[in-house]
Automatic annotation (TrEMBL):
Fe cation binds at residues 338, 344, 375. Pathway: Amino-acid degradation; L-phenylalanine degradation; acetoacetate and fumarate from L-phenylalanine: step 4/6. GO terms for biological process: L-phenylalanine catabolic process; L-tyrosine catabolic process. Its EC number is 1.13.11.5. This is homogentisate 1,2-dioxygenase. SUPFAM superfamilies: RmlC-like cupins. Residues 13-282 form the Homogentisate 1,2-dioxygenase N-terminal domain. The active site is at residue 295. GO terms for cellular component: cytoplasm.
Length: 443
């Protein structure tokens, strides 16, 4: 059921549409008419452009936002390395072929969003704008007062698993609840407060390009994630030219801080196309499936894709497995056994994932099946599927699993492999070693 069927507090005002050209002003007349940068902006505001693509990117992919604010972002002190983070966010990566599964990641009640970000896996390099990073976040307190963060490394897709996030962004306020996602473009400043206690979830950061809706091909013009269900914030601003603010910048995996004597949340009006934060309720995803036999590929569950330069090949897809009906006849209904050229990082927001009912894959946990690492249903799921009566069945009720699927080989961080102490030692042995041969020639 869509989360946003419930009443949203008035503080959060949204405009709908994916890739829509939005414009919004918190004060009537704050947006200049016609010109982007008139000699004098209305109300004495400063015009500031945030570009999400090269100026010369093709028109259909060109992304930018114009901000009209009380003081420009450039007014801050020099950045210095933040030294109270016990480890760098981006240490070396371990490239290993093993199937991996993690027990639920813990919430630390002492830390805020900034200190609760942990990189688990990734590929590529923010300095080359290639690849992606996969993080988990877990925090128990608001970000420090008068602090804001932004990432120069990429565009973050945040999957809320536990707790409510009040995200104040330069472009407006967003409320994110479990089963919702929010996308924060590269460079957008934000702060995360916890109005209802601890939070936990997952992040896919695209170092290259931007998230887009997948092509629909023969499916037609509707279904999967519909464009109208994406929500961008309306402009909301604060006026504060006396308080000292701390700006945290994630830059090539390291955290830097600078000070400024004005709030970064002073954008009175803005206009732009998709280079703005937006949220989406996974409960609004319209699921497609087979109504005869066999399985389509799981790409039918793609919510957003981070395309590479090769058509149809994603740096990373965000794929979900929502509650849905299975009706196929004479079909092995769990996923088939497979070895993929893509790597698959999975997480579970809630409930029990229908393809892994053994209990080892838990909400707030994760699994990684890397390039060509063989996997599929565990032995008990296989035996059950072999013998079940194939009636129409609703699976995944009360559950939402997801996958960050990448064409790149994912490396695992030292934190993900060892420091977090969540890797299950017997994942392979417990899942697939018990499989028995069923091969038998007729007598
Ligand atoms: Fe898989």
């Amino acid at each position: 059921m869509p989360v946003t069927n419930f009443k949203t507090p008035e503080k959060y005002q949204y405009q709908s549409g994916f890739r829509s050209y939005h414009e919004t002003e918190a004060v009537k007349g704050a947006l200049p008419l016609g010109a982007n940068s008139p000699q004098r902006c209305p109300y004495g505001l400063y015009a500031e452009k945030l570009s999400g693509t090269a100026f010369t990117a093709p028109r259909h992919g060109n992304q930018q936002t114009w901000l009209y604010r009380i003081l420009p972002s450039a007014a801050h002190s020099a950045f210095e390395l933040l030294n109270d983070i016990p480890q760098e966010l981006d240490p070396g990566l371990h490239q290993i072929p093993n199937q991996l599964r993690w027990d639920p990641f813990e919430i630390s009640h002492k830390v805020d969003w900034v200190r609760g970000l942990k990189k688990v896996a990734g590929a590529g390099d923010p300095t080359m704008k290639t690849g992606l990073g996969i993080f988990v976040y877990a925090a128990g307190r608001n970000m420090d007062a008068n602090s804001a963060m932004y990432s120069s490394d990429g565009e973050m897709l945040i999957v809320a698993q536990h707790g409510v996030m009040d995200i104040k962004t330069e472009l407006g306020n967003i409320l994110v609840r479990p089963n919702e996602i929010v996308v924060l473009p590269r460079g957008i400043k934000y702060r995360v407060d916890l109005p209802e206690g601890p939070i936990r979830g997952y992040i896919l950061e695209l170092y290259q390009g931007h998230f887009a809706l997948p092509e629909l091909g023969p499916i037609g013009s509707n279904c999967l994630a519909n464009a109208r269900d994406f929500q961008a914030p309306m402009a909301a601003y604060a006026q504060d030219a006396e308080t000292t603010w701390t700006i945290v910048n994630k830059f090539n995996g390291k955290l830097f801080t600078a000070k400024q004597n004005h709030t970064p949340f002073d954008v009175v009006a803005w206009h732009g196309n998709i280079d703005y934060p937006y949220k989406y309720d996974l409960g609004r995803f319209s699921v497609i499936g087979s109504t005869s036999f066999d399985h389509p590929d799981p790409s039918i569950y793609t919510v957003l894709t981070g395309p590479s330069d090769h058509p149809g090949t994603a740096v990373a897809d965000f794929v979900i497995f929502p509650p849905r009906w299975l009706v196929q006849e004479d079909t092995f209904r769990p996923p088939w056994y497979h070895r993929n050229t893509m790597s698959e990082f999975m997480g579970l927001i809630c409930g029990e994932y229908d393809a892994k009912a053994g209990g080892g894959f838990q909400a707030a946990g994760a699994s990684l099946h890397n390039v060509m690492s063989a996997h599929g249903p565990d032995a008990s799921t296989f035996e059950k599927a072999l013998n079940m009566e194939l009636k129409p069945t609703k699976v995944g009720e009360g559950s939402m699993a997801f996958m960050f699927e990448s064409s790149l080989m994912l490396g695992v961080t030292e934190w993900g492999l060892r420091t977090c102490k969540k890797v299950q030692k017997q994942y392979n042995e417990e899942s697939w070693t018990p499989l028995q041969p069923h091969f038998k020639l007729p007598d």
